[in-house]
């Protein structure tokens, strides 16, 4: 269970807000295209050091964050594999 201390406020500039808005719009398009097959990956921190992500999320350690990410990745891989082999993108 989360505590009141787990709430985080993240401040960023307008350019970052614009990128996030564009990402959310793209995500909505994908969600509509995939219908019930859609799974929200929660990915937003690609390329950011795990320690930084852990601190932002208020996790006790980067190891805990890594464990959570690994569990989510395994679940996502299992769901994705149900759709069959991957197609090469051009």
How would you describe this protein?
The protein has 90 residues and is mainly alpha-helical. It folds into 2 domains: 30 residues; 40 residues, no CATH class. The termini are far apart. The model has no long low-confidence stretch (mean pLDDT 76).
Q: What's the domain count?
A: 2
Strand content: under 5%
Number of helices: 3
Q: Describe the biggest sheet? A: none
Rg calc: 16 Å
Shape: globular
Order of helices and strands: HHH
DSSP summary, beta strand count: 0
Structural class: mainly alpha
Instruction: Please state the oligomeric state of the protein chains shown.
Output: single chain
Helical fraction equals 40-55%
Mean pLDDT: 76
Q: Whole-Å distance between the termini? A: 44 Å
Low-confidence stretches: none
Secondary-structure map:
Layout: H1 14-34, H2 50-57, H3 62-81
Helix pairs in contact: 2-3
Give the key terms.
2 domains; globular; single chain; 3 helices; 90 residues; mainly alpha
Task: Summarize the model shown.
This protein has 90 residues and is an all-alpha fold. It has 3 helices and no strands.
């Amino acid at each position: 269970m989360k505590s009141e201390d787990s709430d985080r406020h993240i401040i960023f500039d307008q350019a970052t807000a614009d990128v996030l808005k564009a990402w959310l719009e793209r995500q909505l398009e994908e969600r509509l295209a995939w219908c019930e097959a859609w799974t929200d990956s929660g990915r937003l921190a690609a390329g950011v050091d795990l320690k930084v992500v852990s601190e932002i999320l208020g996790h006790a350690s980067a190891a805990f964050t890594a464990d959570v990410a690994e569990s989510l990745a395994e679940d996502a891989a299992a769901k994705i594999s149900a759709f069959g082999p991957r197609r090469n993108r051009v």
